[in-house]
Amino acid sequence: MKKLILLLIIGFALVVISKQEINAQNVRDNIYTKENTPGKTPVPYRVLREADIMWSKKIWQEIDCREKMNHPIYYPIEDMDDRKSLISLLMYGINNEGLTAYKDDEFNEIYTRDEVYGKFDALPKKQVDPMTGDTIIIDGEIHYDEVKSYQLKEQWYFDKQHSSLRIRILGICPIRKYMDPETEQFRKVKTFWIYFDEVRPLLATQETFNRNNDAQRISFDDLFFQRRFSSYIVQETNVFDNRPVITYMQGKNSIYEAEKIKRELSEFEHDLWEY
């Protein structure tokens, strides 16, 4: 009799556990299945001919994620629900989608995965256990909150076929700002460059946060394609080895110089028209 009761209790417990597992599989944090953004493809570029490009110039801009408009690029710090930050998405692409990381904005030399992790000081480290004296390996960790800005390499061009000044992003580079433990000073370093056309299919499948409506979000590709971010110019092509603005202007003067370059570009487009 005791054995029978024990078997019944065990059977009842197994039924409860299996039911909980089934319920856990059926639980989802949404009332509908999202199919729009996960199945999106990048908006195709217009076909360009060399004969249609009457003027072009390469511009480097920096996105400061501390600005309110750029918060959807920076947050969340840790992946949550169906949201990722841009750096988290790029690292996912490098680890799982075969995304190529380059050493510079010329896209000639390629970084290995370990070299990318080394830029974040996130390689596995050996450490001696003080209790046992054994050598153990501690996995490194990328601190996504250290990536507070991004640099874009763009090509601005005037398409005479459509009579418009347009911008096309060529590459994107996460910039890490962290405290150097040796000097105890903040350092700002470029980590790696990503060729933008290669990453667009991945950007198109990841949505960004919409402050006003969770049902009307856009993808990262839409965010960049529609220019829904704030940035400032840090470099332009010039005869002095394409020197950055910061090498010849400091402090507020660098901001004035960036605004001057942007104003000249705007005036150039304006002067092409007759009224």
Rough shape?
globular
What percent of the residues sit in helical stretches (DSSP H or I)?
25-40%
Mean pLDDT over the residues: 86
Number of helix segments? Answer: 7
The unreliable regions are none
Describe, in plain words, how this protein is organized in 3D.
Helices cover 29% and strands 24% of the residues. By secondary structure, it is α+β, with helices and mostly antiparallel strands. It has one domain. The strands form 2 sheets. Strands 1, 2, 5, 6, 7, 8 and 9 form a 7-stranded antiparallel sheet that branches. Strand 6 and strand 7 (185-190) form a beta hairpin. The radius of gyration is 25 Å and the shape is globular. The mean pLDDT is 86.
Which features characterize this protein?
alpha+beta, 275 residues, seven-stranded antiparallel beta sheet, single chain, two-stranded antiparallel ribbon
